[in-house]
Specification:
It contains nine helices and six strands, in the order H-H-H-E-H-H-E-E-H-H-E-H-E-E-H. It has 231 residues and is mostly helical.
């Protein structure tokens, strides 16, 4: 067809369908983050909680431990625990008392043997010597108390014991009680060593002739009185 210079018919182009915009490519799907997912979930109770060890129950103290605690408490108060009253009240305690004497766990529990009973106490809460004095006071055996203390002073001093020593605490005896005890002691062989001496100012002292001589006892008594006067 011959080429002509006729103008292009634009009406035909207007009738062409409009070009549709190309659809955007689908966005690449992102994988959910595990921690974000977990945080987004509601809080629910774990059906399988971790097992926890059961608390250990404290073992109840044995009869021996209870009795030892009772003796220690009384010892802290300066008191002995007599065997006879315990067994009169609870006869089943006899094997328990034997356990206290045999088990190393109760090595602090000791006994003081008197003429009337056996007494329990705990060291070092109560000193051995104090337990002996407490036993003598418990049994109200004044002759033995006088003899034991006079011998004790002669041994550790050495020193004689003034008669008035037994009027003070913890003995709190009257002079008539002391005189009566000395009278009894003069007629008993086990107290034959307990003798009396006078200081230069006529103060009465007791001493054990088995431990110190009469002359030495007299000089010690004089020295004691002289020292008291100086003070």
């Amino acid at each position: 067809m011959p080429h002509t210079n006729q103008p292009e018919d634009l009406s035909a182009r207007e009738n062409l369908p409009e070009e549709q915009p190309q659809a955007d490519a689908p966005a690449k799907e992102e994988k959910p983050d595990l921690f974000d997912y977990l945080e987004s979930q509601p809080d629910v109770e774990d059906p399988f909680p971790p097992s926890e060890p059961e608390p250990q129950q404290e073992q109840a103290p044995s009869d021996a431990e209870l009795l030892a605690g009772y003796i220690r408490t009384r010892s802290s108060q300066g008191l002995l625990t007599a065997r006879k009253p315990l067994l009169e009240e609870s006869p089943e305690l006899e094997p328990v008392l034997e356990t206290l004497m045999q088990d190393e766990a109760f090595a602090d529990i000791r006994t003081e043997k008197g003429e009337k009973d056996v007494y329990y106490y705990a060291t070092p809460i109560m000193a051995v010597h104090y337990a002996h004095l407490a036993m003598l006071a418990e049994e109200k055996d004044l002759p033995r108390t006088i003899a034991d203390m006079v011998r004790h002073h002669c041994k550790i001093g050495p020193a004689p014991t003034p008669l008035t020593y037994f009027t003070a605490s913890p003995y709190n005896c009257t002079l008539p009680q002391i005189e009566r005890a000395l009278m009894i002691m003069k007629h008993r062989e086990e107290y034959a060593d307990i003798q009396e001496t006078l200081s230069y100012n006529r103060v009465r002292y007791l001493y054990s002739s088995a431990m110190i001589s009469a002359k030495y006892a007299k000089s010690l008594a004089d020295f004691s009185e002289e020292s008291a006067e100086i003070q």
